[in-house]
């Protein structure tokens, strides 16, 4: 039976990263066991794996001088893999990956925070060129596990603040919220309802802040009763819109924080016999392909998802080649696309 012992205390921490043999000696396991952990192999007991990973985080790991061979893969990780949003991202990643002779592996975290057991070992075992994480994040320990294996990570539309050390690509969410509010204000609307995204989503908070900035600048207060926190789903947009439109003084316009929620607003309006845009103006966010096929076509803020994904993939490829990105945070512009779902308020 393999015995293990606790990591060395801080005063014995070496000044240089440790080799596999040195980590094995500290852990009281064989070098082969450490090698399996380093390479993401599954046949290691969880407590032994945790001990070895802890030693790597504590002391550092001295890799071979020759960079390990990576598979011609890009690992694309979604928090939730469904809908047109994911397809737009996949298109952007696949386009750049194909130019570099790389395949794309797609996986889903399914709201596992942290990700399900074995996910990170699977990534390490596949040794991809890099990992792109969409609308989610990894724990510090998971980032460290990938970093010690020279597997670069880039975040797309991260839910939280990624910090300066993690490369990320996002969009101008604040300016998008601002442009949506200004458009509705210019049309004469004052009772404007909001169906936001989750509270933990950085993009949702930025859209809300931008919207409020435009309202404040116009001297129009944002009614707290008209602000509903959603989860970016059509079902959620439908439920909140039903409640909003049933108010004694319903809103004359709704700004949904993504196009899926806007679809739910359309359904609620239809159920209540309200005509869009004559009796209710609706603005979405994303400009997914479906937006132009709704009846009437949806006014929305375009978020360049395909371009964001392509930029993230180019960044991952460059880092995998040993190049340092010119900047760790790329933010692409958003823009209002006016279609048929908004109209001047009729007194």
UniProtKB/TrEMBL annotation:
Record-given protein name: LacI family transcriptional regulator
HTH cro/C1-type domain boundaries: 18-48
Keywords from the named record: DNA-binding, Transcription, Transcription regulation
Example GO molecular function: transcription cis-regulatory region binding
Source organism, top-level taxon: Bacteria
Species the sequence originates in: Microbispora hainanensis
The UniProt record lists the keyword Transcription regulation: yes
InterPro entries assigned to the protein according to its UniProt record, in alphabetical order: Cro/C1-type_HTH, HTH_LacI, LacI/GalR-like_sensor, Lambda_DNA-bd_dom_sf, Peripla_BP_I
The HTH lacI-type domain, residue ranges: 18-63
